[in-house]
Amino acid sequence: MSPESPFVLPSPEEGRLAAADGTRLVYSLFRAEQPRASVIITHGYAEHRGRYRYLLEALVSKGVSVLTWDCRGHGESGGVRGTIGRFDIYLEDFAVILRYGQEVLPTPLFAFGHSMGGLIMTRFFQQRSPAVAGLIVSNPSLGLRMQVPGWKLTLAKLLSHLVPGFNLPSDIPPELISRDPAEIRRYKDDPLVFGHATARWAVEFMAAQDATIRRPADLAALPVLVLLGSGDGIADAATSRDFYGRCTAASCKIVMYDGFYHELINEGPAHREQVFTDLLAWMDQRIADLATD
After folding, report:
1. CA end-to-end span of the chain
2. Is there a smaller number of Cβ atoms within 10 Å at the N or the C end of the chain?
3. Residue 50, Cβ density class (10 Å: 0-12 exposed, 13-18 middle, ≥19 buried)
4. Number of H helices, E strands in the chain
5. Which of 146, 98, 104 is nearest to 120 (CA)?
6. Which of the listed ranges 5-14, 16-25, 144-153, 168-177 does the model predict with the highest average pLDDT?
7. CA distance 135 to 221
């Protein structure tokens, strides 16, 4: 937002929902004045809903209400850090969030997923009929660019069966998150950001990646906006560009940002504003298309 007329983000409505197994799922709902659309945001691995303030400000200031939530094992939601029995549990949890969003949010409703959140969203809408006006993914984790040592992969597969809750370091360098030193410090100092994953989580995550990239045509009915950074050292932009480029979506637009790192929305002010401008322009076009259908 411009320094001359700073936007004040409204106080959120905070709450919790129960997952199918009773796990607490915590959310924040930001209502825009005279809303014209809404978005549900799903965050990446080892972080939480509180790290999306810049995106929240960009959306809410333009009349878009936003629902953010913490995946189980993340942020303030229930569950053990870095633990999942089946990757599809994330999808089942999102179904709970989506149903709530459909009850309280204005239409058209969009879904946004970053990194692991992008994988969750893509997998979810591969398996279920679209219940949103469009999907937006930011550097989705369909493949990894960061090299994982062979010994760690072998150990994770072995321990996934023997000791599924065994913790392994995720070894994600904070310097790969953003080119903005202030954002790197914010990430390092965040007590809700963690740096490990269980053996079972790692195996389930890799299996979900493999299963997802085999089925690009399953997004055929859903308009998709794909935001990628060529400098992403965590998620592999080439894998995402290939996958979404092959999906037969009704409308699939891929935008590559030269040199941008993993968290496009947490790059420096000028860079993230470019991302927000493109995102909102795509949403505006989709809203206009729906109005003429």
Report:
1. 33
2. C
3. middle
4. 8, 10
5. 98
6. 16-25
7. 11
